[in-house]
Queue: 2 jobs
Job 1
Amino acid sequence: MAGGVVISVRAVGRRKPLLDDWSIPLPPEFREGGSPLTLRDLITRIVLEEVKKFRKRQDQRRLVHVLTAREIDEGLRRGKIDSGGRDLRQKVDDQDAVATALEAFEDGLYLVLLDGQELRELDREVHLQPDSQITFLRLVMLAGG
């Protein structure tokens, strides 16, 4: 598990994933023989890691970058050429982000699958393997349901 576990984000009814798969490293205490890991711990760790990445992206966007021809072509293909130089000043509180993610899970807005098996209880222990796949499956609410 030195490389971490792979995370996917999907939505019911969509073929393509909402985001590209990524992985996060897990600290040694969550490895085999270490402290027990609950779904709550796992979601918290993933959210905190993503908040850290968000802040890093924000810092990078503050700087103006000279773009290569390839980066410009790629931006044209995506529909947006971005050379940075903006300070959006978006503040994210770590604990608010974690609380929101946990509340959304409890409200049934998304499911968590670990190696294809649904995890239903936040405080139940989970067991990660070096090749574990975590999938967050966003559910679509039906009107009038």
Job 2
Amino acid sequence: MKIFCYLIIISAISMNCFSQQVVATVDRLPEVASGSFKHFENFPSKFVEVRNVDVWLPEGYSNKNKYAVLYMHDGQMLFDSTTTWNHLDWGVDETAGKLMQEGKVKPFIVVAIWNTGTKRHIEYFPQKPFESLSKVQQDSIFKANRSNGHSVFAVDKIQSDEYLKFIVTELKPFIDKTFSVLKDQPNTFIAGSSMGALISMYAICEYPAVFGGAACLSTHWPGVFNTKNNVLPDAFLKYLEGHLPDPKKHRLYFDYGTETLDALYPPLQKKADAIIKARGYTDANWITKEFTGADHSERSWNERLHFPLEFLLQK
């Protein structure tokens, strides 16, 4: 049975957001089965559109203790299937709470960053690899459509660098000030799936002094939804080769399924694995796992979330 435990926080920072587009108020906030939940409506930013941010705190959270921090993308999909568009969720509260109770991970909180819907793709799309392409290639990518015929990109400007600036220079300082957390790199992690996995990979490469580990589930190496004559995987992999952080100070987790959209990933992930191994990563600081039969959905990520959490947040 879910325990409805959340708090809407109206802080002074919200006064700066009225000139920006406001995220639509949700009818009902997620409920959590473990721990407690704080909701920050329309968190302001000078880099990206305002968005909701949720913070999950484990059972027994106390200012007398210090906690590691896991930043996660697609925040509205993480806790409660009754509030998500597809009626699925990651079960982050259940899995994290259980692992902490069993002593398998160090205490941590989760910062769930909501996506803004139409701009999700341009915020999660690694910017520097895209900008390394020719103008003709970039224009071709912006013409890409989904299977339903709708455009992949809402606008013609990638904004992932701005999105990461929001996390690192605006959201993280607020979290560090508001909650009893460990602020250092070895205790700061980032995670996501699909495009959220791509931006997590990009984040640890762009900000290696901020993030000590990244979990990339079902990494969407194609970038768009057409693999024919697609230059993006090579661009992402070339970027990865030149920007992977020091393996002595970082942990990387990758995985993929074999069904639906995940069926595209095995050969691309193998190329990424070769790059990671060549950089000096070993079993001590890097895992790539295959889940045969798993599809591209929150259901699958829910079932295997304990693997990246145990790996990144091990005591």
